[in-house]
Specification:
Layout lengths: L13 E2 L18 E2 L8 E10 L4 E7 L4 E6 L3 E5 L5 E5 L6 E7 L4 E6 L3 E6 L6 E8 L4 E5 L6 E6 L4 E5 L4 E7 L1 H4 L11 E7 L2 E9 L3 E6 L4 E7 L4 E6 L5 E6 L4 E5 L8 E3 L18 E7 L7 E6 L11 E6 L2 E6 L4 E8 L10 E8 L3 E5 L21 E8 L5 H9 L28 E7 L3 E6 L6 E7 L26 E7 L4 E6 L3 E8 L3 E3 L4 E6 L24 E6 L31 E3 L2 E10 L12 E5 L4 E5 L3 E6 L4 E7 L28 E2 L8 H4 L18 H9 L3 E9 L9 E8 L3 E8 L5 H5 L3 E10 L4 E7 L20 H10 L14 E7 L2 E7 L3 E7 L6 E9 L2 E8 L3 E6 L5 E6 L6 H6 L1 E3 L3 E7 L2 E8 H10 L17 H6 L8 H5 L1 H4 L7 E5 L4 H7 L2 H47 L9
Parallel strand pairs: 39-42
Antiparallel strand pairs: 1-2, 3-62, 4-5, 5-6, 6-7, 8-9, 9-10, 10-11, 11-63, 12-13, 13-14, 14-15, 16-17, 17-18, 18-19, 20-21, 21-22, 22-23, 24-25, 25-26, 26-27, 28-29, 29-30, 31-32, 32-33, 33-34, 35-36, 36-37, 37-42, 38-41, 39-40, 43-44, 44-45, 45-46, 47-51, 48-49, 49-50, 50-51, 52-53, 53-54, ...
Helix pairs in contact: 12-13
């Protein structure tokens, strides 16, 4: 941790208030004490960095075969671009309309997008953050299909009315050349042919345009003569059309599951009609109709049979069958089942030229929730292993945590155990989408993201350097029995679905201890080991937590309340190697209410645990008198003390995971000291009749005695609430109760009179109270495993408005004092290795230290933040964060070498407050809360990093650090790289001589304004984009604008100078060649007479 540098201090010197210096207690800040604060508003700026995950609700796809970049458009107007591993980019159309089609300007670094709001946009991909250069909004026609021929600047646009318009992609202006539907179809046809569903030019003749109408009519249009050469009619609607590369045949896919192959010069009837998945009747009749073939592609190879790839077309009797992609190669037909419905697919080929042998090598299949790339070059068509983090949503994300600047050895350790989990059977070839270059960022600190999922799995991700790669996956559901009969399934469980879903987690990066809480009121403690192990019996501890309704739920500030007799709120039932279902105490029959029954059953068979995270202890809350246990609302683990603490709306429990014992089990109201309005004392669950006060000996080891485990029950069983969803009254009762919302382990001064530091636990509640518990730890070593731990309640430290979200502790200079931890060691290592690691590890922290300076306790709630001087417990700083909204997430983080509080409010504001003075440093209206998913997953981390789940499948990372924003351009990857366009196919001598090769077309002459005239102004409106020259000139202002303008001008000037230099060199070479030939001719005929010539 960096100390504050006095030279950097410009303002914000904060003196302790006089109220805190009124009592001259040891460790209390005096009036002349100052904490030098170096953080200023200039250190903060908010911006998005990168978006990871699968594009949510994809709708279209395109591929640049030269740049090898894949683009995916979505139903929300998003645009995601992918290259090699680590190269990905996110853009957004402002309108939010769905993207219906994408077209690359191949090897030009540009992309055209067409949206459902009848607008088309030209994106510039030559910059790290792509921008729109031009937009064109159609007013009278609805866009249905677009086609941009290779190396052409004229874009064909088909409409719902059946017309085709032509756009110059350089200027984004409409040509006066229009193909009207009534001229394309036969004049004798009276019915409208429907929307344009396909446009393509003949691979061998650019002057012939193939137009497919929805009704089944296909027209070959002569662009020069402005008339239809041929018309092809079929009874079934058309979905797609594909050319043979020689331009003599094309294939159509239809709504009845048929494929028709047409010879260009024979429009009367199809050359072939096949139904790939139809059953062929024996009597020679037409096969039964199948589902529509939504798309077909026809690709040729030099050596071997062509490939025909199609989606859809399955028989109607295949009810419930998953979506399939069919690959027809010669006489073999392969049907590939997909996990999700197919949105689109593209066949990747070696050449971008449509008039050459295509040589297909892969198929990219865009599914509703996945992206699959199939290798066409290997037997069985294996898929490529995806390098992108597209599996975030494999199971829905239920919680998320972000750790920046982790210990450097963590990522290699997680990767080493995670690499053994990889699937086999992938293609041996490299990932074919390999364009772009990585960014050249300077940030090198390790970052880890942990996601918890609905199926109980936990994924660790390497998030360093703006990338994301899965490191390791942990399946917590393995601990429990999955098979359960219908008669055994509880009818009033906490959750109907996803009983293993992760609710919250606590992770200590230094010790690698992991603690997770699930929705079925269970907590699992994990240790990290590099060795596999077989656990014969999973250690289990059952905890009985209940609420006393006769007791006072929460003290009211300034009010006097009386309490019932002090009765412990809960009891425990710890077990070792016993079934969680006890016939003596557990009841699961209809004769009586459920009691002492956990929601899940821990597996009884041996558990084989691979290297990685291995179960240390399972803790389950049990049913109490017919009431299910309440979900866990807060959780914390401390490796130095060997403790796990968790809480819910009933109270809190502290578990010693080393001794596998329950130490403390209190109702929330019992945390208050006698000086509080609610007089409750903490009681040990081990000795319920022991008088309160002082330190409670609460760990006699594991004992299943009924007398020891059960506490006196309250008479208020009738008031006990139920989790039935039909009861609104009980839900109000539950909400009004004071839940435990936050924990923080620390070493501080438990009481005002203390001058010695000792281990403490800060407890925050949903009604704004912060209580302190003092811990009494036994000596380290073997005594730690034998001697008991005990607690003492120290009363209320401070009260705030709203529920407590986060807490922290600063030293006298403003440096954060993190919870103590134990360095990691392998629990399955040999005794010698364990002993060596213990010698290397620092000793356990002493229970008390003398001569310590003052401390500052930092507390942030849903409404306000306070800083309290310790040990005087005087509030020296207070800041009301919001009056009309509430804070969803708050954290104490490090930015630019100093500490601050970061907050995310429900009204969308992101704020930072300095420490300890709570000066506002940043307040940006960023993102209003539109989905509880954002509230559940938003988290801050150190060094100005934050993230949230922006959709069910995508993580959005943001930064609030000015330094990161300044370096963002360098850190981002590049999409466009200079690549030579492959040479055009050789026409051959005879084809060139007799005109048998590809026929070119002067589109400029045909579609230009001089020939075609101007298009109607009312047809479409041209809108300069923010990335265009007009947009740049309009948006650029100040110094940044001047720099941008200068850079653009230099780029343009350099480009024009380069073009001029090339032209000059070509002209000089031509002149020199002409001069040489002229000189040779002169010498040849110099002395000859005219009649000798």
């Amino acid at each position: 941790m960096k100390k504050f540098n006095i030279r950097k201090v410009l303002d914000g010197l904060t003196a302790a208030s006089s109220s805190s210096s009124a009592t001259a207690q040891p460790g209390t800040p005096r009036e002349n004490d100052v904490v030098l604060e170096t953080l200023q508003s200039e250190h903060f700026q908010l911006c998005k960095t990168v978006r990871h995950g699968f594009p949510y609700q994809p709708s279209s796809m395109a591929f640049d075969p030269v740049q090898k970049i894949l683009a995916i458009g979505t139903q929300t107007g998003a645009l995601r671009l992918f290259g090699r591993a680590g190269v990905e980019c996110y853009c957004q159309h402002e309108s939010g309309a769905a993207v219906i089609q994408l077209q690359f300007l191949i090897n030009e670094g540009a992309l055209v997008s067409a949206l459902t709001d009848d607008s088309i946009h030209l994106w510039n991909l030559r910059q790290k953050i792509p921008a729109i250069l031009h937009s064109l909004k159609f007013n009278r026609e609805r866009i249905t299909y677009c086609h941009l021929p290779f190396q052409s600047k004229w874009l064909y646009i088909g409409s719902e009315r059946g017309n085709i318009h032509i756009v110059n992609v350089e200027s984004f202006t409409l040509s006066g050349y229009v193909i009207m539907w009534n001229k394309a179809i036969e004049l004798s046809t009276k019915t409208h042919p429907g929307p344009v569903v396909h446009i393509s030019d003949n691979p061998m003749d650019e002057g012939k345009l193939l137009i497919g109408f929805e009704c089944g009519v296909v027209v070959l249009w002569d662009l020069k003569c402005k008339k239809a050469d041929y018309r092809y009619n079929y009874d079934e609607a058309i979905h797609s059309v594909a050319w043979h590369h020689e331009g003599k045949q094309f294939v159509c896919s239809h709504s009845d599951g048929t494929l028709t192959t047409w010879n260009v010069r024979v429009p009367a009837k199809p050359a072939h009609i096949i139904t790939p998945h139809g059953k062929q009747p024996k009597d020679g009749k037409k096969p039964e109709p199948c589902k529509p073939i939504l798309k077909v592609e026809y690709k040729t190879t030099r050596a071997g049979d062509p490939f025909m790839v199609l989606s859809g077309g399955l028989s109607y009797d295949t009810v419930g069958r998953r979506a399939c992609l069919t690959v027809v190669h010669g006489k073999s037909t392969t049907v590939l089942e997909m996990d999700y419905p197919i949105v689109d697919f593209l066949t990747l080929c070696e050449t971008p030229y449509p008039n050459d042998f295509q040589e297909p090598y892969a198929v990219v299949v865009l599914l509703e929730k996945d992206l699959v790339v199939i290798d066409l070059g290997q037997t069985g068509y294996p898929i490529f292993e995806s390098p992108y983090p597209l599996s975030i949503h494999e199971s829905p994300v239920t919680c998320c945590e972000y750790f920046a600047d982790c210990p450097s050895e963590l990522i290699p350790a997680l990767y080493s155990v995670g690499s053994r989990q990889k699937r086999q059977g992938f293609s041996k070839k490299e990932w074919p989408i390999s364009g772009g270059n990585w960014g050249q960022g300077t940030q090198s600190y390790p970052e880890i993201i942990i996601t918890g999922h609905a199926d109980g799995s936990i994924k660790f991700w390497d998030a360093s350097a703006l990338m994301l790669q899965v490191l390791y996956k942990l399946k917590t559901a393995k601990v429990f029995e999955r098979a359960r009969g219908k008669e055994e399934k509880p009818t009033a469980d906490i959750v109907d679905e996803d009983p293993f879903a992760i609710q919250t987690l606590s992770w200590c990066p230094e010790s690698r201890m992991l603690c997770v809480a699930g929705v079925s009121a269970h907590v699992i403690v994990y240790r990290f080991s590099k060795q596999d192990i077989t656990t014969e019996v999973v250690e289990l501890l059952e905890v009985r937590m209940q609420c006393d309704f006769n007791g006072v739920d929460s003290p009211v500030l300034g009010g006097e309340q009386t309490s019932a007799l002090p009765t412990p709120a809960a009891s425990c039932s710890p077990q070792e190697s016993e079934s969680p279902f006890q016939p003596s105490t557990g009841s699961n029959s209809s004769d009586g209410p459920r009691d002492n029954i956990p929601c899940l059953q821990v597996r009884s068979s041996p558990l084989k645990q691979s290297p990685g995270y291995q179960v240390e202890l399972v803790i389950q809350l049990v049913w109490v008198s017919g009431e299910p246990p309440q979900q866990i609302t807060s959780l914390a683990v401390n490796s130095s003390y060997g403790l796990v603490v968790f809480g819910n709306c009933n109270g809190l429990a502290v578990v010693d995971y080393l001794q596998k014992t329950l130490l403390l089990n209190l109702g929330t109201s019992e945390l208050y000291s006698p000086s509080d309005p609610c007089q409750r004392q903490p009681r040990s669950p081990r000795k319920p009749r022991q008088p309160s006060g002082g330190f409670c000996d609460a760990s006699d080891g594991v004992n299943n005695s009924e007398e020891r485990c059960k506490s006196p029950t309250s008479d208020a069983k009738d008031n006990a609430f139920t989790r039935s969803r039909s009861s609104s009254v009980t839900s109000i009762d539950r909400e009004s109760r004071e839940a435990i919302s936050s924990f923080y382990f620390c070493e501080s001064f438990p009481r005002k009179s203390d001058s010695l530091l000792s281990p403490c636990l800060l407890v925050g509640t949903s009604q704004g109270s912060v209580m302190m518990l003092a811990l009494s730890l036994p000596p380290g070593g073997d005594q730690r495993l034998q001697q008991p731990l005990s607690f003492a309640s120290c009363g209320t430290l401070v009260r705030l408005k709203g529920g407590i979200l986060t807490m922290g502790l600063l030293d006298a200079t403003g440096i954060l004092l993190p919870p103590s931890y134990e360095q990691w060691y392998d629990p399955n290592a040999s005794d010698e290795e364990k002993e060596k690691s213990r010698r290397r590890r620092p000793p356990s922290p002493p229970s008390s230290q003398e001569g310590q300076e003052a401390q500052f306790a930092v507390v942030c709630s849903e409404k306000q933040a306070k800083v309290v001087a310790m040990p005087s417990q005087t509030c020296i700083h207070k800041h009301n964060i919001t009056e009309t909204s509430f804070v969803l997430r708050a954290d104490v983080v490090q930015v630019a070498g100093a500490y601050c509080i970061t907050c995310f409010c429900a009204n969308g504001h992101i704020m930072t407050l300095s420490l300890p003075s709570l000066r506002p440093l940043l307040d940006v209206n960023y993102l209003p809360l539109t989905d509880m998913r954002i509230a559940r997953t938003f988290c801050f981390s150190n060094l100005g990093q934050a993230l949230y789940l922006t959709s069910p499948t995508e993580i959005q990372r943001i930064t609030y650090s000015q330094e990161t924003c300044d370096n963002l351009q360098e850190m981002l990857s590049e999409l466009f790289t200079p690549v030579e366009t492959p040479e055009a196919p050789n026409r051959g001598f005879f084809k060139g001589l007799f005109g048998g090769g590809a026929q070119s077309l002067d589109r400029e002459d045909l579609f230009g304004e001089t020939t075609a005239g101007k298009a109607s102004r009312s047809l479409a409106q041209h809108i300069p984009g923010p990335g265009s020259m007009e947009g740049m000139k309009g948006a650029a202002s100040g110094v940044v604008g001047d720099l941008a303008r200068a850079r653009i001008a230099l780029d343009e000037r350099g480009q024009k100078l380069g073009e001029l230099e090339e032209r000059t060199a070509a002209m000089m070479a031509s002149a020199e060649s002409f001069s040489k030939h002229a000189h040779d001719m002169m010498l040849k005929y110099k002395d000859k007479k005219w009649y000798q010539l």
